């Protein structure tokens, strides 16, 4: 390519007059270009890994209707917010956005907790933040396992050296308060998943906070798949630590995880004997970074995902405009409409107790004789709609359909019901 550039330059000069007008200055230019060619060749020859062809072409991301258990579709308003100009992570405007996010989380959680913030990471990061800070090595934790998230919480607690005890129910089930109290273990923390997306259960919360406080125990709740889609009030229900994810009902991109700590939780956490195992998730640092500790200066801890903060703020603004109670009501009505349509098709719901059905993620008993992978694959290929199979204890047993935030509508229910009906007509069904 450089050879042709030199040739064109030479041709341009000769066109201005006779060939004898090739000047000394042009000769210097030729020498300069030759030097550049030699230098470029030297640089190129020193590279053992060259750019791959796929990175030199744009990647066409398809538009899909995301009706799996998450992430959900991102509305144009939230996507536009995330595309705003970059700011420094401690600029005055960024701090104001963070303050507004805190207020939005307090509204969504129904809490006045001072230590309320968003972890830079997915819901998993918030789970680890909650467990790492509230438990020290050797302390006991009781974990209610009614799906995969209880299983993972138990593994995380084990990894930091906590004494892990579990109470386990079958997939699709939940615990009564009496069953929890009868465990006869005096834990420091009791963990419960509010919206178990692997099984489609929304766990009853009332009374558990009082039960935990009776035994001087912190009540830790995972509400990643439920927050905003079904009622929960952190302060009123005595929850000490609660977290969620941005990519479910809030419809923001994955990568920020709202979390809140009660004064009881903070008193224990900020008087630990040992430092939390994770520097990145150390609440004393995070509380300062988010301006939750009343100190006059926020000290640099990490570079927060500023663009993601824009999107999270916008998603919380939409929830505030909609109203929590209106959001709860819509998700309930749409889920019931969906459940009725499924039953009219002859499909069975995995969670038997109607009151325990999670409005945001519906689990359907995998139709007998069908390969669930073929069903989800057909719907993706034919309708460009994502639904998924089971996860953890429900793997191979269910189909999961998420109707969260902007995706929770009767129009989307009609689309997925049509897609399911066609899939059952066209997918192979064995005689077994």
UniProtKB/TrEMBL annotation:
Its EC number is 2.6.1.44, 2.6.1.51. GO terms for biological process: glycine biosynthetic process, by transamination of glyoxylate. Its cofactor is pyridoxal 5'-phosphate. It catalyses: glyoxylate + L-alanine = glycine + pyruvate; L-serine + pyruvate = 3-hydroxypyruvate + L-alanine. GO terms for molecular function: alanine-glyoxylate transaminase activity; L-serine-pyruvate transaminase activity. Residues 1-16 form the signal peptide. Coiled coil: none annotated. InterPro entries: Aminotrans_V_dom (IPR000192), Aminotrans_V_PyrdxlP_BS (IPR020578), PyrdxlP-dep_Trfase (IPR015424), PyrdxlP-dep_Trfase_major (IPR015421), PyrdxlP-dep_Trfase_small (IPR015422), SP_NH2Trfase/AEP_transaminase (IPR024169). Residues 86-415 form the Aminotransferase class V domain. It holds the Pfam family Aminotran_5. Substrate binds at residue 400. It comes from the Eukaryota. Keywords: Aminotransferase, Pyridoxal phosphate, Signal, Transferase. The modification N6-(pyridoxal phosphate)lysine is found at residue 248. SUPFAM superfamilies: PLP-dependent transferases. Transmembrane segments: none annotated. GO terms for cellular component: peroxisome. Homodimer. Belongs to the class-V pyridoxal-phosphate-dependent aminotransferase family. This is Alanine--glyoxylate aminotransferase. It comes from Sinocyclocheilus anshuiensis.
